What we know:
7 strands; 269 residues; Chloramphenicol Acetyltransferase
Amino acid sequence: LGGHSLLATRLTHRLGRALDIRVPLRLVFEHPVLADLAQHLPRFGDRHLPIPRAPRVRNPDGTITLPATSGQKRLWLLCSLDPRAARAYRIAGGASISGPLDRRAMVDAIGEVARRHEVLRTTLREEHGEVVQVVHPEWHGGFRDTAPVDGTPEGERELLARWTEAAVDLSEGPLFRADLVRRPDDTHLLMLSLHHTVADGWTLTLLLEEIAHLYCASVAGESPAESRPAPHPQYGDFAHWQAGSPRDEEGLAYWRDRLAGAAEPDLPT
Length: 269
């Protein structure tokens, strides 16, 4: 099949939707030949069960605490061992915008995206020895105009480097940031930055598509909040489901079997 983990994730997602089953990601790596993969799909013939909405209880400061996913816990550990990892696991991208720009509509569109997706307003912290997600009531990742660049490719690259290399604190956030660069020719550069604890490379593409949709709705005089329904499940719902899922135990059993007899790693503490 070839490819990488992001493509494998998209493949399992499409197979799951087409066949109405849950296809574990590890199956693609265990059986990289398509014919072999097809032979093993019947093992996972149980039908999708909807992920229920997790209970949400607000803390006195207005935040909501939810379980962290296994992937978030791994990244938290890695970033705790080496603070440089928090910066390394940042996903940055954006879009060049030509033509007239309605700044107010862009601000509203990005703010609405952050309102609709709890994970974009999420930070991580440790409570009683467990890593948890903290969903904040407001998004504080922007939005501001960066001073116009000097018009040279070098100046723009320097600006982007400073922006993408800024320090990241998983506990303080923000883990999703946005900024707008106004170029001398009145074109604009929309910059987005997300930490891998709340996004992946696929997320960035979907995020840009959603921002464009909501921006057009705002320019047309429509309410961004009404132009598209809020998604369900949210990432916190998935994390809550994963924490109580028997499939999680199946995954642990699989790795216990694969790693049985392996030498104990000497990790720095």
